[in-house]
Description:
Elements: E1 7-11, H1 17-29, E2 31-37, E3 44-45, E4 48-52, H2 58-72, E5 77-80, H3 95-105, H4 107-123, E6 126-131, H5 144-164, E7 169-176, H6 198-213, H7 218-230, E8 237-240, H8 242-253, H9 256-266
Helix pairs in contact: 1-7, 2-4, 3-5
Amino acid sequence: MNTTNLGVAIVTGASSGIGRAAAKTLSSAGFRVFGTSRRAAPEKSDGITMLTCDVTDDASVSKLVEEVLAETGRIDLLVNNAGIGLLGGAEESSTAQAQALFDVNVFGVLRMTGAVLPAMRRQRKGRIVNLSSVLGLIPAPYFALYASTKHALEGYSESLDHELRAFGIRVVLVEPAYTRTSFEENLARPDQLLDVYDSARAGMDAILRKAMETGDAPEVVGKTILEAATASAPRRRYAAGRMARQVSFLRRFVPESAFDKSLRKQNGLPV
């Protein structure tokens, strides 16, 4: 049994995939981990206490944080992992569908962060790890709305980090690339499909499924989350996995025109 005590952690979306891997990795390292899921899950699993929370509901988020504080008296780490995807042409989604996507991927993070900050400020200590994506750094054809949520998260996280350092709190980003989870199986589909995008949408779906087969294991991302959570002098961004590191490097140093051509080729679009 690990006797190291690294504090109390909350991991949202911890019932499967990256969230589950992160929760297990943090628990093994010495955190007392509370994982969340929208639907009821086994109360205890692999040393992780599972609680129900809907990040789109203010009352549900408040209840979760109150429950953790009542039991432990502190919160040292928040991992904002809960999120959903959407594959399709940007104009194929209604405004309502786009708002629902942002409500989970962006405003869910805002709700959770706002709920834990008072406790972290009192402690004068805390770390918030937000799960972004390489799609928060690069264009993402047929993932425009999903990528928009990750770009928003990038700007929010980096700005918030500057606001909170005076309280001993740091905010960092973890950016995975393709990861072998059920992400592609759970993707939302546009609510106003247009025939003109059928071929391109199907092609992108095939590219995604093939990429997922050779993607990183969730545990790779889990280890990166642990690094981001425990670094004494954290970086703003942590690329999770080899492909994510490559994309991050290329985005920074490859000329825009060359990057554009490469991205279109990789996504099966005319160059």
